[in-house]
Amino acid sequence: MRAPTESAKIVTIEKLSLRYGSRQVLRGIDLHVGAGEVVVLLGASGSGKTSLLRCINLLSMPQSGRICIGGEPIFDTSPEGHDRLALTQAQIGRIRARTGMVFQQFNLFPHMSVLRNVMEAPMIVGGLSRERAEAEARALLAQLGLEAHADKRPAQLSGGQQQRVGIARALAMKPAVMLFDEPTSALDPELVGEVLRAMVALARSGMTMVIVTHELGLAFEIADRVVFLDGGDIIASGPPADVLLAPEHPRVAGFVARFHESIDMLKPFLETV
Amino acid sequence: MFDVSVITANASLLWQGLLVTLLYTVTTIGTGLVIGFAVGLVQLSRLRALRLCGRVYVEFFRNIPLLVILLWSYYAMPIFLHVNITKTAAGYLSLSCYIGAFYAEILRAGVEGVDRGQVDAATALGMSPSQRMRLVILPQAIRRMLPPLVGQSIIQMKNTTLLSAITVPDLLYQGSYISSFTYKPMEVYTAVAAIFLIILVPLTSLARRMEGFDARAH
Fold this sequence. Notes:
The complex is a heterodimer of chains A (about 270) and B (about 220).
Chain A: E1 9-20, E2 23-34, E3 38-42, H1 49-56, E4 64-69, E5 72-76, H2 89-96, E6 99-102, H3 114-124, H4 130-143, H5 159-171, E7 177-181, H6 189-204, E8 209-212, H7 216-222, E9 225-230, E10 233-238, H8 240-245, H9 250-272
Parallel strand pairs in A: 3-8, 3-9, 6-7, 7-8
Antiparallel strand pairs in A: 1-2, 1-4, 4-5, 9-10
Helix pairs in contact in A: 3-4, 3-5, 5-6
Chain B: H1 5-9, H2 11-43, H3 48-62, H4 66-81, H5 87-112, H6 116-124, H7 129-159, H8 171-182, H9 185-217
Helix pairs in contact in B: 2-3, 2-5, 2-8, 3-5, 4-5, 5-7, 6-7, 7-9, 8-9
């Protein structure tokens, strides 16, 4: 595990609390993600992992705490030295654009071509010329094996292809960190592999990533650290082998045991093949 | 016996009435679209006070019968406000404001019907609220808004017949007038109904085809 130094922190989260009505979703979370680090957030549904991810780029607005992206505060209610940080929509938008997000349901723009999906934000948010944005978008699509689909509409693509377009669209803004919200959960099983491979390649290229997933295999493959959430608290954090193979907390043990169970149930079938 | 000559002999009166009906339909739809777009956006504002203003406008015009609005604006408003208003102005303004409220609701529902994930994606890419609306939400909302917009516009053409209550010489008013001196209500009102059918049936089927188009679009 690469220990993040102070200067190379890409995401800093301190004492983050989020409440929906009377329901406390996040209870004072601290999380630091260093440059090039890959962090996988695990936990049962309702544990707060997706909410935590959505707070990083303020898609969900927390009640208190502090969030910095690349050393720049985007949210801050901490009393020491600051008043409550008041940023304009434009300032928040600019910092947000330094994070790239990939969604469970892809959320591609259905009325635009694949190419347009990827080049729109670099043009209108990033201020790139049309020619430059298109060239970069085509290069990204080629990198993800999608060059043949540039002029199609998202609806004409398979789920796996759509999700790779989602990754290309997020990468087009040259983000400092990529946020993945259960990127393979909505896919047919046979399409999961191509998206996982794209994510592994991205991690190997040195991209900083925060990933919410149920794919434990992916966690073992690319995570420098897994962070296990339960009821809005971090209950375990560390290298995947430590957290998942020798779980200390009963909740983590239960989570991993269910994963083993499903493999055990498959064994008789696998052996007959 | 159905006496066709009543209609042919008074064709020019019916024609004048039809032109008035079409004129009010087109101009009030045009003005109503502008009102509806503005009020619809106000209803979608992040500011509570603005949203409330939009809500009040919409509920005001949606919950008073159009006939009452027309009669009130022509006969009552001038007394309240000490102004003179022509029946043309009263009819035009009432119909425009009335349909504007319905268009505003169609816009609001269309925008709110766009998948929440689209807003998330546009936001995460750093788009400002106005960029999100212009580039991501409205293009998708307009597609689903077209069938109800056409439907409401068809209702508007039929609603123009209420103008006859404030003596605007529309198609129905001319029909009533012809029947008053020919004593042939059967022929005249049948003709008036037939004219509406001939104009609106093709538009209705167009609206229906657009719904099918919308379903296939995504």
